[in-house]
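Incident log, support desk, overnight shift.

02:14 A customer reports that sequence design results differ from what the structure should imply. Their input is reproduced verbatim below. On-call engineer (initials T.W.) acknowledged and began investigating.
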């Protein structure tokens, strides 16, 4: 027979929330089982990073002058 402490036996009854011997208030128990949502991120992409990447591609010769002008116009709009 394997002896298991009472706290370890009760972990299975609470799911992902550990059992702390009933020291949680109902509000704390709810907060522990419902983690906060992450903060929303910016709606659009970072324009300066996009333009920098575009200029690096143009300088490396990946984009032609025509492609660079067309994409730069589309990004700036």
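02:41 Re-run completed on a clean worker. Output:
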């Amino acid at each position: 027979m394997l002896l298991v402490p009472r706290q370890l036996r009760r972990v299975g009854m609470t799911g992902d929330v550990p059992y702390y011997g009933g020291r949680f208030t109902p509000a704390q128990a709810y907060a522990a089982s419902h983690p906060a949502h992450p903060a929303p991120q910016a709606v659009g992409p970072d324009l300066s990073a996009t333009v920098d990447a575009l200029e690096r591609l143009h300088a490396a010769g990946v984009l032609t002058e025509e492609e660079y002008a067309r994409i730069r116009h589309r990004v700036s709009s």
